[in-house]
Amino acid sequence: MFRARFSLCLLLLLIAILIVGCAGLQLPEDLSIGAGDTFPLMSPVFTQDQTIPQKYTCDGDDISPPLEWSDQPRRTESYAIIMEDPDAPTGTWIHWVLFNIPASSLSLPEAVPLDPQLADGSLHGKNSWRWLGYGGPCPPSGTHRYVFTLYALDTMLDLPVGITAEELLQAIDGHVRGQAELTGTYTR
Length: 188
Hints:
The chain has helices at about 1-20, 165-170, and strands at about 35-40, 40, 50, 65-70, 80-85, 95-100, 105-110, 125, 145-155, 175-185. The protein is an alpha+beta fold. It has a single domain (about 30-185), classed as Alpha-Beta Complex (Phosphatidylethanolamine-binding Protein), CATH 3.90.280. The strands form two sheets. Strands 1, 3, 5, 6, 8, 9 and 10 form a seven-stranded mixed β-sheet that branches. A three-stranded antiparallel β-sheet has the order 2-4-7, with no helix packed on it.
């Protein structure tokens, strides 16, 4: 009798599992696989680990390169980007901080204006030279890496123009839906 009841309970449990599975059980969005995803970041003017053209450096026009991304993580409300040189002799050197890039954006054009606030509402932070906007690769000597990190965020940030990269990273803690990286090099 016990075996029959146990077998019946086991059968009912298996049926319940199959019904739930077939019903397409969905996780809440916050527990979805999309949280913390990586997605591609690229540039039409250089590829991963290749040389950034001189035009985008202090030896050229010192303008930002065009950047493009795709496969936006779900629930992205805005983007933020930090460009840094981890090979600088005095420690990591920040070349660019830009945040509140609209979620509808899938690219940044060449030569993003240095204005504190851009037409689309994006805001500039301060780089290590302590001015707003992009400052191109300018190593004192040798080859340095320049890492562009794009963060997909689940919020617009209530932060002022001129924040530092460190302040931005503190503010986005807990809000990153995904991250993309592109590294270029430059030699002087």
